[in-house]
Design goal:
The structure holds 3 protein chains of 3 kinds.
Chain A lengths: L1 H13 L1 H4 L4 H7 L1 H5 L6 H11 L4 H9 L3 E4 L5 E5 L2 E3 L6 E4 L5 E3 L4 H15 L5 H13 L6 H8 L5 H18 L3 H11 L5 H10 L2 E6 L8 E5 L7 H10 L9 H10 L5 E2 L2 E2 L6 H14 L8 H9 L2 E6 L4 H51 L6 H18 L3 H26 L8 H23 L15 E3 L5 E3 H23 L1 H11 L1 H6 L4 H26 L6 H16 L4 H21 L4 H18 L15
Antiparallel strand pairs in A: 1-2, 1-5, 2-3, 3-4, 6-10, 7-10, 8-9, 11-12
Helix pairs in contact in A: 5-7, 6-7, 7-8, 8-10, 9-10, 10-11, 10-12, 11-17, 12-17, 13-16, 14-15, 17-21, 17-24, 17-25, 17-26, 18-19, 18-20, 18-24, 18-25, 19-24, 21-22, 21-24, 22-24, 25-26, 26-27
Chain B lengths: L1 H7 L1 H20 L10 H26 L7 H29 L8 H13 L17 H25 L4 H20 L11 E2 L12 H28 L1 H11 L1 H6 L4 H27 L1 E2 L6 H14 L4 H19 L6 E2 L4 E2 L1 H19 L3 H11 L3
Antiparallel strand pairs in B: 1-2, 3-4
Chain C lengths: L3 H16 L8 E6 L7 H20 L8 E6 L5 H14 L4 E4 L3 H13 L4 E3 L12 E3 L8 H10 L5 E7 L2 H16 L7 E6 L7 H9 L7 E6 L4 H11 L9 E3 L4 H4 L11 E4 L8 H14 L7 H20 L4 H8 L3 E3 L5 E4 L5 E10 L5 E11 L8 H4 L1 E4 L5 E5 L4 E4 L5
Parallel strand pairs in C: 1-2, 1-3, 3-4, 4-5, 6-7, 6-8, 8-9, 9-10
Antiparallel strand pairs in C: 10-13, 11-12, 12-13, 13-14, 15-16, 16-17
Helix pairs in contact in C: 2-11, 3-4, 11-12
Classes of the chains: A alpha+beta, B mainly alpha, C alpha/beta.
Protein name (chain C): Amino acid/amide ABC transporter substrate-binding protein, HAAT family
Keywords (chain C): Signal
InterPro entries (chain A): ABC_transp_permease, ABC_UrtB_bac, BCAA_transport_permease
Chain lengths: ~650, ~400, ~425
Amino acid sequence: MLRKLLMALALCCAMPALATAQTLQSILQTHSEEVAKPGRRTVGVLLDDLVASELPQAVPFLEAWRDREIVLREDDGLFFRQRDGDLFDLDTGEVVGASDGVALAEARPNGGVRRAIGDVLVQFQLSDPDITKRQAAVDAIARSMDASQLAPLAASVAGEPDPTLRATKERLIGLLQASFAPTADARIQAIADLGSDLSVDTRAVLSKILATEPGVAVTLPEGANIAAILTPGVDLGTDEAYAQLVKASLAPPVTSAADVRRALEANIVDGTVGGLPVATMDTQEARAAAYQVLAEAGTVPPLVTPDDQAAALNAHVFYLSYSEPDVAITDAARASLDAIETKVALSQAADLGLDALSLASIYFLAAIGLAITFGVMGVINMAHGEFIMMGAYTGYVVQLFVPDYTVSIIIALPLAFAVTFGAGVAMERLVIRHLYHRPLETLLATFGISIALQQLAKNIFGTQARPLTSPSWLDGALVFNDVIAISYIRIAIFVLALIFLALIVYVLRRTRLGLEVRAVTQNPGMASSMGINPDRINMMTFGLGSGIAGIAGVAIGLFAQVTSEMGQAYIVQSFMTVVVGGVGSVFGTLAGAGLIGGLQKGIEWLNPSNTLAAQTYMILFIILFIQFRPKGIVALKGRSSAD
Amino acid sequence: MGKSFLSQNPSVLWFLIGLSVFTLVVTLLSEVTGIAFISTSFVKTLGKTLCLCLIAVAMDVVWGYCGILSLGHFAFFGIGGYAIGMWLMYARTEIIVLESLAGQVLPPTPQEVSDAIGTQIFGVVGSSEFPLIWAFADSLALQLLMVVLVPGALALVFGWLAFRSRVTGVYLSILTQAMTLALALYLFQNDSGLRGNNGLSGLQNIPGFEDTSQATISIIFFWASALALGLGYVFFAWVVSGKMGSVIKGIRDNEARVRFLGYHVESYKLFIFTITAVVSGIAGALYYPQAGIINPGEIAPIASIYLAVWVAIGGRGRLYGAVIGAAFVSLLSSWFTGGGAPDVPLGFYTIKWTDWWLVLLGLSFVAVTLFFPKGIGGLFDKLVRKPS
Amino acid sequence: MAKILPLASLLTAGLLSSTAAFACDDPIKVGVLHSLSGTMAISETTLKDTMELLIENQNAAGGLLGCEIEAVVVDPASDWPLFAEKARELLTVSEVDVIFGSWTSVSRKSALPVLEELNGLMFYPVQYEGEESSRNVFYTGAAPNQQAIPATDYFLEELGVEKFALLGTDYVYPRTTNNILEAYLMDNGIAAEDIFVNYTPFGHSDWATIVADVVALGADGKQVGVISTINGDANIGFYKELAAAGVSADDIPVVAFSVGEEELSGLDTTNLVGHLAAWNYFQSAESELNDEWVAAWKAKMGEDRVTNDPMEAHYIGFNMWVNAVTDAGTTDVDAVREAMYGQEFPNLTGGTAVMLPNHHLAKPVLIGEITADGQFDIISQTEEVPGDAWTDYLPESAVLVSDWQELGCGMYNTETETCVQLTSNY
């Protein structure tokens, strides 16, 4: 089949004389309007003509058209290919002149037209020596499956040198056969072979085979492939069911309140309607009574009462029938799809779990710095969110100077830590140090710093979001199967969170500094009498907490947006994480982040159409949670619990 | 109370005199008398400022006297505004709807009227069903009751839960902040039935007063706000002056000792928390008809933090301090952001106050907390004490 | 004195040079009510600059009625109640003849009652959800039938989309637009279960689950398309997550109604290439007028600045107002309003915009594909579409029309033939 096609093409090339009767340009001119302003529904005629012409230059033309290289010369209405400032003749492929100084209009095919072109190109590209073109052809088939593609695709498999592409082709053949194989047995076999493939297109093929249409009748029709029988009120709403009856002309339409009003208005005689004065028609009951009178007189159709509706529903059977008439095929497809869907459900749960884990790690990163300053020092730092923002802007500034994204991230992470560490130490020395005995006032002072920093960022960087681009090796996602996937950037954040968890636990448990910090936490007076300088410890702790916020800022900026207000989005969440987890405990914060992340995803899953509601309910949950466990999940003994 | 109360608290008397004089002067200079030295929009600004002073006084009682740093009092303020706003919107729309339905051939049924009002109010947000919370919107008396009852009930339940669990200090602050955030997020949703982000608008048009000019309405609300502030001030001055005031201040200074003395600390705290919430609701109900619109952005957590800042700058633990703080900072703020302050050219850079005001404000909080913990009110103390 | 003198002479020189050309003493005042600080400053500051450029140009061309035009700029600071306060100030204290302003719906709703009370005149330049027609506002941005409906048609007709994900930020514009679109899609035979709706908060950043939900929509073999009314910054995270999930514009096309040149400028657009946006104007539109306008803008603001749709709306609105004042011979609001109806002015994208009696414009609808340089490739342009204040696709508003010229009513019920109300339902 394909060989024949190639031979035909070769013949065309060998005998250009034969083609002179019909050049590519002449075909394009007959469809000039269609080339210049193509539409998906109308481009078919042109494509059919091009294929029917069997011109060898049609294929390169289609490729160029898809790639937006075709232009219309406005002087004479001829089409050319434009590339590197030159115009090429479409039939001969020769340069006819420069494109500068010529009035040209681009012929821009839209997405739908490009897909149609891709479909036509499939047959020419399936065995093209260029692997990218073969891949494009296979992608085109996958996007719009059609019975006609089965034969050329099957013919191209044998000659496919690339093993991956070959596997893809074979898989596609399986999918095509499930829908379009000539015999029922072959289709059932193909459906069974689809087995446990979780991919969206496999499910799409099976779902299409299982497509149903709703029907209603007095008795179940013979010979129809019934998928399910529906009970009104249980499987479908009674109103919906009745509407179906009305649509099938099996019942009269419901008389709505507006219908009643219109009917009454149309039948007013001398200030009365149905013998009742118009002025009394100010209740629904009065109107119904008047309507009844009119209906009995036969001037309006009878009122359809709820009883009538129920009777009509009872007298009919509602069902779904498969479009596919063959019961064996639908049974096989149903069995396959059921098996797949069980796995899909499990995978979706796992995917949701991964999302929750990722969200938890982001909350953890944002909150851990706060856990240190709040937990260890009892200081509320409202400017914590602004330290996150400072970290993110540091990343942005580094990318301005270092264009290589990998290098810039490697520079940005420690630099963000250094910048926010410095800012944290400065703030501790200048402000917080003086307020240790007035924790509520620290809140106000740091809030002042927070709004000043935010406005400062606005003045420097503007209100517009700034880009922080991740290196290309963090693009894309880690795919476990067709449902479970997580982007590399989120994995990186997760790893970062793990590293910091380990680092902080190590610092607190295994180092001199950690020992001193814990001593100050538990009893500052005693610690100081043991020769520990609480001033230095406080400074270091605050710097550490702020520095980690800076690193969190870079991480958050990579997957979301860098704005002067980004800190605000995390500050309340971070406080909740710390308080829910238990102040002063790293593992408490971890537990808090896990709880909040998991909970938010869980609520989102229950109500996927409203993310805002999920956040609201989560906060309500936290408020209640704190009522019953005021000290959080992991309660700590020491200074912070001494109040 | 009467005479002895006022003579014990001369500052209350001075405050009332000052407030009355201020109200009279503003009225005389307003557009109502024809002098029109003060524009209607500025009368509205002043009226709103008085409402802010009232909630600041409430905040001072709960924080400055009782030691509870609530970061959620603007939630109560907003609820008060929503409660009155629902009636204002409903009643005004009802008038419009009845007028338009009067042209219909058949007299309208109650259902038709309700549907038409629903379409008018919720049409823009894509539905016409009346949510349940609008059940009393047709009655001014019931909605006025809601202004007091809803904030009161919310504060009572929230406070009871929190104080019972001995949630104190910064924990309580964060918890109240979470409460106001949850409420704001809830109201942001369209499904809340309060028109989502758009909120309730057109509140300055008072139903039944269509022919009264805004100049008159603004003065009426200005008086109402001044009256509410005066009454609120006297009430809170009375609350914090007697024996109860001593217990409350004791709780602020050392909660445990007061408890060991046999007082039921939780009840006192709950009372203060609830009563200040009610007053906040009243302040909100007076504020939003002057502002003209209420939407969820008004109760974002930041508003309540600003409230705390006003009180801190004005001076905690003295009621007039709260009034000064709220009036001073909010008026100054609108002067700076309104382009009232001239730009400062430095040659290489021009300081635009719209850009730099917030930086200045933020740093001034820091300065006040560090160097003037008693706020502006503290300066008065120094002035008063020096001669003696 | 010596110090003051140069300053004074400078001032008088400046005054002379600007007033010398004008015959009348009192300048005509134009109020500009756009947020210059707060969250909306990013979008609205550009419009303030646009107004200043337009007024400069008009003064250079001889002003209006022989008078100089003076801009009165105020800053409502993205604080919605302030829009009402500042509008009142502009109308009563500064006594402006017209206001150009507002961006968000809530800010317009805030200013509306004041405009109606004081019989002011405002030009509103942003695409919005419709369901409103005030006597005192001219809507120069797109109504849903001038942006959302044509874009949906494009999805249905050209891309063959059979299943829709309507993703939006949770506020009124997305809510109402999505309600209209749902009704419209069902009229076009799309089943209710093939429409997925999701609302997220402002500035949302956690998109992984939502993107997974959208991808999973393809499981029944239907072509999926996303109609996005996601606002502002949240778009960045959304497109990043789409790209990370390996979803290209060929797999699942996204058409956005709130992403324009200004939003894309300074962003890394590699993730967005091929996705779509629908507006009434793109900077890449090919016309001489547009080339002039873009050049004038860049000359004033700098080479790297871009133009966008709301700017064109002000461009048309301001020029129409100037012509209406010239026709009426006065800046009196009622006279100008009468003169506005039927005003025509050339679009920057070609063709002519006409002001309709319902206070909306007839404008062409453009659909563009995002390119790597942050601009749009225009792939579809319709004829002028008349803006519809009350959508035909929701049952309650299908019976309503607005016609201030003939019926003198912005909310006229064609079924009962009564004017529902003269002032807006805010």
